[in-house]
Specification:
42% helix, mainly alpha, three-stranded antiparallel beta sheet, two-stranded antiparallel sheet, 9 helices
Length: 226
């Protein structure tokens, strides 16, 4: 599974958690699931291996039930399609992978554990260096013949808690830069044709920090400092 897909799933799970009870109920109705809101449990059988234990722990967290056995049925415990998404997102954090369809078809932990895939949470990657063909959107961009290509940018503003350790933020940016090949892409027009290549330059400065706490927060004054 790509990192982009994983992030999207994690973000969806987070957004579901933030929904009000009324919105959760409406979303459940829209998804078309009509499960029994009451729950019942089979005679308790404890997990017998690592995968069963991980799935059990996640079910307990998502469903809010202190003790769940491997023979308990997800839907009979009150599980719904929204909670299935949350379960999938959480189990993937432990390297356990299965789909919503698989959960619906194998609604007990003992069944699900037999078809779930165990993968390494952190997969080592290597940077692909050298020339890379332009993507269609990159071709489109350079066809615009902008006066200053290097001035084109996208920006986003994020807020952090007061007292945040910016050394950690800086390290996070460095890790992100080293993980994603195209963040290290370089472009040059050669014989009238734009070329792209990845330059594995770990020494380049990619993070800047400005302390504006001692100045008046006026746009003109802030702009002079940056």
């Amino acid at each position: 599974m790509s990192s982009a897909s994983k992030n999207e799933l994690d973000d969806l799970s987070k957004r579901i958690n933030e929904l009000s009870p009324e919105k959760r109920q409406l979303l459940e109705l829209l998804l078309g699931e009509e499960n029994d809101s009451g729950w019942k449990q089979e005679e308790y059988v404890a997990p017998s291996n690592e995968i069963e234990q991980i799935i059990t722990t996640v079910w307990q967290q998502v469903l809010g039930i202190k003790q769940i056995g491997v023979n308990d049925n997800f839907f009979e415990l009150g599980g719904d399609s929204i909670q299935s998404i949350q379960i999938i997102a959480k189990t993937r954090q432990y390297g356990i992978y299965f789909t919503t369809n698989q959960l619906f078809e194998h609604p007990t932990i003992i069944q699900l554990s037999k078809i779930a895939q165990k993968r390494s949470v952190r997969q080592e990657t290597t940077i692909a260096t050298g020339e890379i063909l332009l993507t269609p959107v990159q071709h489109w961009f350079f066809e615009q013949n902008l006066a200053d290509f290097h001035h084109w940018n996208q920006s986003i503003m994020l807020e952090v808690k007061e007292g945040e350790d910016f050394a950690l933020v800086q390290e996070a940016f460095k890790q992100l830069f080293s993980y994603h090949d195209l963040l290290q892409a370089r472009f040059e027009k050669i014989d009238g044709v734009w070329k792209q290549w990845v330059d594995d330059n770990k020494s380049e400065e990619i993070f800047s920090y400005y302390d504006l706490s001692s100045v008046d927060q006026k746009e003109d004054e802030v702009s002079k400092l940056i």
